Amino acid sequence: MAKRLNMRERYKLMTRLGWETSYQPMDKVFPYDKYEGIKIKDWDAWEDPFRMTMDAYWKYQGEKEKKLYAIMDAFAQNNGHLNVTDGRYVNALKLFIQGVSPLEYQAHRGFARQGRHFTGEGARIACQMQSLDELRHTQTQIHTISHYNKYFDGFHEFPLWHDRVWYLSVPKSFFDDANTAGPFEFMVAIGFSFEYVLTNLLFVPFMSGAAYNGDMSTVTFGFSAQSDEARHMTLGLQAIKFMLEQHEDNVPIVQKWIDKWLWRGYKVLSLVGAMMDYMLPESPMSWKEAWEIYFEENGGALFNDLARYGIKVPDYAAICEKEKDHLSHQIWGILYNHTAAAAIHTWMPDDKKMDWLSAKYPDTFDKYYRPRFEYWKEQEVKGERYYSQTLPCICQTCQIPMGFMEPDDPTQVAYRSTVYEGERYHFCSDPCKQIFEDEPEKYVHAWLPPQQIFQGNCGGATLEDVLKWYHFNVGADNMDYVGSPDEKRWKAWKGLDQEDDELRGTGTE
């Protein structure tokens, strides 16, 4: 009788199916895992800490799908959208489906590509399985949020918007940068820096916020994905340690990539800061609190562990620490002023939210941001709400408009520039400038929305032309939440429109 193999033995067999090619040299079959300078002495040293086989993977994911879709169906059948705390909450989901879900698909494609290009079979298998996870995340997020598309504006063209709309070039350029890197840099960028160090900032506090606001469908897909993210985090750490243990010459290369990609990921997650602090009507924690828990405490312990390899916390982390009291407020100000060309609604926080922000940011909000926001509210009341009609100068690296302040002086706009081959390029921070100067040829070709509009590649020269090219339903997808069709429908569903009629003296007997 044949011996029954245990999980470890089956994993070994599954990940050792490669062979030395004879018709072509191995370097021609796997040409891309050498040029970055990473030295690998023994690919057999790669081992997935979970040792998951394909049959275990399908069973595990199948069970999760049954539970997830049962809750999604129940949410839809019971009109769950009526039970969220406020119609404004849905704008956080709009930003999620426009900015985050396409990144899951980009990650699917990126890991599928790396699954072809590593010489070692263990690394190839790990990439292929993570590629499947990322595709599943894309599908479940679209299925979950499609319920809201039946009742709210701002969801109908999210794939097209991801490619065209100005603020979505921030997350898109992040993955364009990663997917045009070599396979080892991609693993540090996505497998380690984004998945291990930063993804908790998205999937734990924001999903807790979804639950806090009554959206049980979204929180279920979030926590379903997070169980995969835990496995991805372990694999990301394994990838880093594998590179560091293979050769000492790999250490400075890996350190430089960690420095770069932690900053690039941090800038993308600045949008999440605005979602947590401003788009959630009821916020379970602030961006600052989340940063302190998931980066400073958890990330600090990680870098203490990596110190034995010679890896240290990126110098840029000191700037993040200074900005944690300011980041979400500055991003919300940018979105508020440019919402005429954004597929979300914005608003000024009410008194209850202002007081919450004062309590969470006692050293900065009342001093720097409350006066500005109260002035903008006064302008709204007077009918003088300002929508920017101009094109902002954006950072050549992270592609965020120049709306960030100096880390040591929040009254001054941070502005940097450099000249490369006779052309001047602009940046929002020292790290973005440094990243550009390390690889200028990569970033001079970036697709920058304002420049593309000026060059006539976005439908025309006027805002009306550009919004048409965006496929916006003007007045429904963009502008303020107050007075929008979304607000009118929400009030009608909740019976609040009758209160408005009574206040105006137009109610019926």
UniProtKB/TrEMBL annotation:
The source's domain of life comes to: Bacteria
Q: Which organism is it from?
A: Thiolapillus brandeum
The entry lists its GO molecular-function terms as: monooxygenase activity
InterPro entries per UniProt: Ferritin-like_SF, Phenol_Hydrox, RNR-like, YHS_dom
Q: Does the keyword Calcium apply?
A: no
Pinpoint the YHS domain residues. 406-447
> What is the protein's name according to its record?
Methane/phenol/toluene hydroxylase
The record's keywords, sorted A to Z, are: Monooxygenase, Oxidoreductase
